[in-house]
UniProtKB/TrEMBL annotation, chain A:
This protein's name: Mitotic spindle assembly checkpoint protein MAD2A
Record's subcellular location: Nucleus
GO process annotations (BP): cell division; negative regulation of mitotic cell cycle phase transition; regulation of nuclear division
Entries under InterPro entries matching the protein: HORMA_dom, HORMA_dom_sf, Mad2-like
Lineage of producing organism: Eukaryota, Metazoa, Chordata, Craniata, Vertebrata
Family indicated by similarity: Belongs to the MAD2 family.
Domain of life of the native organism: Eukaryota
GO annotations of cellular component type: mitotic spindle assembly checkpoint MAD1-MAD2 complex; nucleus
Keyword tags: Cell cycle, Cell division, Mitosis, Nucleus
UniProt keyword Cell cycle present: yes
UniProt domain HORMA: residue ranges: 11-195
TrEMBL record, chain B:
Localization of this protein: Chromosome, Centromere, Kinetochore; Cytoplasm, Cytoskeleton, Microtubule organizing center, Centrosome; Cytoplasm, Cytoskeleton, Spindle pole; Nucleus envelope
Regions crossing the membrane: none
Function according to Swiss-Prot or TrEMBL: Component of the spindle-assembly checkpoint that prevents the onset of anaphase until all chromosomes are properly aligned at the metaphase plate. Forms a heterotetrameric complex with the closed conformation form of MAD2L1 (C-MAD2) at unattached kinetochores during prometaphase, recruits an open conformation of MAD2L1 (O-MAD2) and promotes the conversion of O-MAD2 to C-MAD2, which ensures mitotic checkpoint signaling.
Record-given protein name: Mitotic spindle assembly checkpoint protein MAD1
Family according to the record: Belongs to the MAD1 family.
Region described as Disordered: 476-499
Keyword annotations of the record: Acetylation, Cell cycle, Cell division, Centromere, Chromosome, Coiled coil, Cytoplasm, Cytoskeleton, Isopeptide bond, Kinetochore, Mitosis, Nucleus, Phosphoprotein, Ubl conjugation
Family matches, as Pfam families: MAD
Organism from which the protein derives: Oryzias latipes
Amino acid sequence: MTSTLKGITLKGSAELVAEFFSFGINSILYQRGIYPPETFTRVTHYDMSLQVSTEPRLNNYLTNVVSQLKEWLFECSVQKLVLVITCLETNEVLERWQFDIECDKSAKESSSAPREKSIKTIQDEIRSVIRQITGTVTFLPLLETQCSFDLLVYTDKDLVVPDKWEESGPQIIDQSEEVRLRSFTTSIHKVSSMVAYKRTDSACST
Amino acid sequence: MDLEDDTTILSTLKSFNTFISRPERPQLPSERSAGSGVLQSQYKRSMEILEAAERVHSQNRFLQLDQEKKQMELSHKRARFELEKAASNSARDFEHELDRNQDLLARVKKLEGREFEADKNLSDQVEENQVLRRNLEAVNKKLEERDTKLNTANKTITSLKDELRELRQKIQNQDLVFSAQTLEKQELQEQLDLQRRKYQEISQLCQTLQAAQSLCSEHIIKIKELERRLILQEQDMAIVKTIKSEAAKVTDLEKELKRLREENSFLRESRENYNLLKEEAEGLRKKLERMEKTKEELVNVELEKQRLVEKLQAWENLGQSTGLNIRKPEDLSREVIQIQQREIALKEQNYTLNSRVRSVERLQSELRAELTQQCTKTMEEQKKREAQDALVRRLQKRVLLLTKERDGMRSILESYDSELASTEYSPQLNKRLREAEEVLQRTQNHNSEMEAQLTKAEEDVGALRLQLQRVEMELDSLKKQPASSPESSSSVSKEEENTLRKKIEDLEAERQRLEEQNNILEMRLERNNMQGDYDPVKTRVLHFRMNPSSVAKQQRQQEVETLREEVTTLRELVRSLQEGGGILHAQDSSGIYTPNISLSLPPSKEVQDLRKQMESSELRNQRLKEVFQKKIQEFRTVCYVLTGYQIDITTENQYRLTSVYAEHMDDSLLFKKGSKGSMQLMETEFSKTLGEMVDLHLHHQKSIPAFLSAVTLDLFGRQTTI
């Protein structure tokens, strides 16, 4: 809704991608039951109904992260965004939702013209990605214990670390199964998504 | 009437019964003599009597029932009568009630009317009340306003009064201040006068001081001048001294001078020698260096000489080894020249041979080309021949066909000619002939066309085959040419080729292996990328410090810590209470099924209560003790004062009495309490002195109080006298 009808600029693309992350993270939190469902409210976006959290502390945290992410998307210095779900009792990483971001650096030049890609196609692609995320619930293992989440950002090494942010480990799952999901592109940023979950050693696991 | 009937019935019954019983007695003895006939008649009589009795009974019964019925009817009548009475009564009552009801209704109506009026009155009064209230409220408001006004007026009054007071106070203060200031002014004036007097005195003193100062300055100047002169004199003195000392040194200096001059000249000479010697030394050093260089050169030269000698020997040996009879280098050079000449000759031969080879090769290639051409030609000729053969065959076939047709036609014609009996068939036959000929011609034309097409096709095929063969020949020739040409030059290129081929194969194998490895590594990289691995040189992983999982972890830790603290405190509680609560647990027979922790709660309360009780009781005890002690002290002092004896309990049942007027501290009487309760005096030193009184009062009078009082009196008497 931010980019003009003329085409997608770098700023507009960054805003679209940040918006997608905001809604995507909220729907993942709702689907995986990290927060109780009664704290979520239904909103309409991308021509579909999405669940968004109403807890103020969570929303504050998400807006902080997403606004910083928008800046980094504008500078084309972010490579991945990862949502890590850890079990509170054992401190084990149970799930990892990884979004790889490829940025076309030629759009950073001031002389480049806005790319022609209609917002509708981008929104359709985003809608299919979010639908697929909702659909993954069918094969992901149940999260039975109390869990909490964390957002990691993979950036370029030479980036200045802002205050309130700190370095962290990659928090990789040992013995994981990976499933690659759909991707969407705004012709400046390409976001491909995938989910990795801890392999359950029960006989039911395929 | 009925009763009379009853009595008659009863009387008849009685008479009947008597009648029955009478004849039975006298009949008894006659019965035995009469026999059975009498019995039968008796029996019949008895039966008749029984029947009669029954009839009587029934009649009786009937009469009874009639009586009862009549009684019932009577009772019925009575009841009816009574009921009618009751009904009439009730009717009367009902009428009464109705009248009363009507009265009451009338009353109710009246009351309702009154009530209505009352309501009206009430409402009117309520309205009046409200109006009054409003008036009251208005009045109240006015009152309040007036009150507020009054209050404000009062406040203003008070404030004005305060201001007045303050102003008065200020005026007073200012008056005080003024008075104080006037006093101060007077004081200051007095001080001023004093100061003026002092000033005059001081000015006089100043003048005297100035005079004195001027004198002083003059003196000072004089003193400075004198000091300067002193200093100058001292300097002169010092100079004189130095000059004296110097004068004394002069002789020494002259001696030294001489010595130094001699030394100087000596040194100059030595310096010249020194220079000379330096030059010599430099020259020698240079020579040394040169010598060393020459030595090194010598060494090198010797080495070279050895080398050259060796070379020479080698050269000389060469001649011997080669067997060319060489002794001098001239021979060598000759030999070399010969060899060179030989070489030149060989090279010329080589070149000629090469040129021949090339021409031969050219011829060969030309011949090959001719060969190919010839081959092609032969092939063409062959093709032509084959084509010709094919044509020939076709023509032969055609000829055969034609001959067959001709024969057939001839036969037909002959048949037709033979059969030409009637001329009817001739035109038809001619027509048919013509038609047949036409058909024939058409078929022949068709045939010829087909044959022409066939020949064309065969020619094309032949041409193509020729081309193919030409190309094959060229290929063969080309293959043969590179194979033939290196053979002429050398065999090294073959080896090179082989090595190059081997290299190519190896490189291809390596390439494939590297491609496979590359694929595997790419898969691994992709897998790692999916799992979330990253290159630490290029990327960095960041996350928000206050992220939900860290916050949740902190909360968890805090919960865990609080729980641990709770657990430790509870454990301590349990331990302490298990030690002390074991007793309480036995006493506690409430039957509550709870774990030890909750059982401890009631005992603790009890414990606290008991403790409180204990403390209170202890306090009470203490207070009581204090009180008792006080009281005892009081009592004892009172006893001492009143009776004159201080009574102490030394040991059990032994009492020591000391008198007020005792002459010595140790004078005391000991009494012992016997088993029966009687007091007995014990022997003490003091009691020995009171033997008379003991005898008198205790033995004779048997009274201890008398004895004691006698003792006090005696002591008192003694005291007063002393």
